[in-house]
Structures are given as structure tokens and as C-alpha cells.
Amino acid sequence: MKAKPKLIQEEILVVDDQRDNLLLLSTMLTMEGYQVREVVNGKLALQVAKADQPDLILLDINMPEMNGYEVCQLLKADQETKDIPIIFISASHYALDKVKAFNCGGNDYITKPFQLEEVSVRIKNQLAIRRLQVELTEKNACLENEIRHRQEVESELLKLNQQLKVLATVDSLTKIANRYYFDEMFEREWRQSNREKSSLSLILCDVDFFKSYNDYFGHQAGDDCLYQVAQAISEVVKRPMDLVARYGGEEFVVLLPQTPVASALELAEKIRYKVYKLNLHHPLSATSDRVSLSLGVAGIVASSQYNKEQFLAIADQALYQAKQLGRNRVIL
Ligand code: GH3
Ligand code: MG
Ligand code: MG
Ligand code: MG
């Protein structure tokens, strides 16, 4: 729907096959400040309405060739002209004719002979209604834009939130879970295993002689090595409920819910072997020719006498022993 700026004259198209009617109406409307176009038949009315987009149409009903009802129906069926208000002007006083006029889309109905004051006030009414409709349509479009914008912002926020979650729980160097996430999960699994009296196991892994690896190859190569070791451990630990996390520096932890210690021990050996088989050259290792892991394993059936810090300390103690006994090994 088009709205004309207020300062521009509103245009009225007058359609009547009788010249004297046309003259009377157009004189009055011009005096009231409207811009007036006059046409004498329906066919011309359709053409001018489309081309001029008048603000209102005064439409005679009884005309040769095409009557006002037909003209009105065609105008209302056309996307380009359907919103132009139409006021019928007819000699017929019959209610049925008036009903027909409204049924085919007319907005108002004036009977002939007409009073100029009545025509004037009915035109003003229809123009005011149309202005309100235009305003509403524009406000609606604004609201729809606003809603769309809010939805975009919301989905952007959702994405950012997910990214934040990842940033908060994933270690940026090794792309596995970070210490923070491990602490959260350890707490949760500890409670769960206490509740269900189920077993829970832990494996602590520490890279052997990693300081000298850094010293020999440089810090960047050290970082690459940590990434590869983390990925290797993750490949061995396959159950979705298990968690591999970077515990700190060159230490990794594997949390194994509902896992008896014997199975954890087997898994730890697989991890040791997998990393050994990476065959990452380490000329300064005192135990072998390559990067290796020492692993400490601890397992409990929860509700035992330990708390979770003591449980971690047991795994740490086992890891210490693995180091003491020569590294590149698993100790329970
Ligand atoms: P051990 O066999 O007894 O574990 O000897 P180690 O040299 O591995 O142990 P130590 O604790 O003396 O050294 C660990 C080294 O790991 C020291 C530190 O510079 C290195 N390190 C810790 N975090 C990172 C890291 O993010 N990147 C690199 N490149 N090195 C790291
Ligand atoms: Mg007529
Ligand atoms: Mg260490
Ligand atoms: Mg180490």
C-alpha cells in the first residue's frame, strides 16, 4: 500500500458517464483542495487507476459497456489497485443494490442526487481510514523487522554461549577436556558411584622426561607432542561415558565410571602401548628411544573409606611408583 506524503495533494479519480455529474463533482473536489482526474467509462477507469494510483475513486454504477460493479471487482482483484478506497455514486436507493456494491468490494455508497457536503465528508472518512491502514501496515512491517532482528540476536547469543561452553571445557592445545571439566565430572561421577555403589576407576598418565624433550626439540615441538599423546589416549578410550582430560602440564587423566580396577589396568596398558607405538623420537629419554608414558591406576567401589581427594592421591602414588620403577609402565 502506497502512502502519499501529507503535503502532496490527494488525488481522486471520478468515474461517471454523465458529463454534468463529472463537472459538478470535480469542481467541488478541486475547491476542497484535491487533485481530480475524470474519466467517462469503466475501461478508462481501470487504466488510470493502475497508472495514477489515486487515493480514492468515486464510481458511478450505471454506465454503458462496463458497469461500476464490474469495475470495482476488477480493481479489487488487482494487487496494484486493491487498496484504493472506492465510493459508489448511484441513483439507485434499493438496499439490494447497496448490498451488492459492498459485496463486490466497495467501501461506501452515496445516492444521487447527492449533497456536496455529504460527498465531502464521506471522502474525508475514507481517506482517513486509508491513512490509518497505511500506518498500520508500516507499523506491522516495523514490528516484523524487530521480531526478525531479535530472533537473529537470540540465535547469535545461543551460538556464542555454545562457543563459550566449549572454550570453558576444552583444552586449547590438546583439544581434549580441560582440568576444569575433569573436576566437574569427577565430582559428579564420585557422587553417582556413591549413590549406586558402583565401581569407579582413574588413570593418571605422565609423559616421561618431557622437560628434556622440550630442551632438545623446543617448546613448539613439545606442544605438538602433547597434542599427539592426547589424541592417542583418546583413541584408546572408546566408551562415551569415559573421560580423557588434560590434568595439567604433561599429565593426563582418564576417568572411568562403572569400571572395575582390573579393566582400568588393562586399558592403562593399552594406552601405554599406544603412545609407545607412536614412536615419537626422544634421544634424551633415559629409559627408551622415544616418548613414553608412566601410568598410575586407582579403582574403588565407592562408599569405601576414602574421599575423592584421597582417591586421586592413590592414583598419584601409583604414578610416582611407576616413575621410580623405571618409567614407561603401569602401576596399580
Ligand atoms: P618425569 O619423567 O619425571 O615426568 O620428567 P619430566 O621432565 O617429564 O618432568 P618435569 O615435571 O620435570 O617436567 C615437565 C615438563 O613439561 C616441564 C614443562 O616445561 C613441560 N610442559 C608442561 N606443560 C607444557 C606445555 O604445555 N607445552 C610444552 N611444550 N611443555 C610443557
Ligand atoms: Mg451513469
Ligand atoms: Mg609431570
Ligand atoms: Mg613428566
Automatic annotation (TrEMBL):
One Gene Ontology biological process: negative regulation of bacterial-type flagellum-dependent cell motility
Top-level taxon: Bacteria
Keyword Nucleotide-binding included in the entry's annotation: yes
Residue positions where 4-aspartylphosphate is found in the record: 60
Keyword Kinase: yes
CC per GO annotation: plasma membrane
Domain GGDEF: 198-332
Annotated SMART domains: GGDEF (SM00267), REC (SM00448)
GO MF terms, alphabetically ordered: ATP binding; diguanylate cyclase activity; protein histidine kinase activity
CDD domains the record matches: GGDEF
PROSITE patterns in UniProt: GGDEF, RESPONSE_REGULATORY
Matching Pfam families: GGDEF, Response_reg
Reaction(s) catalysed by this chain's protein: ATP + protein L-histidine = ADP + protein N-phospho-L-histidine
Domain Response regulatory: 11-127
Keywords noted in UniProt: ATP-binding, Coiled coil, Kinase, Nucleotide-binding, Phosphoprotein, Transferase, Two-component regulatory system
Documented EC number(s): 2.7.13.3
Coiled-coil boundaries: 143-170
Xref: NCBIfam families: GGDEF (TIGR00254)
Name of the featured protein: histidine kinase
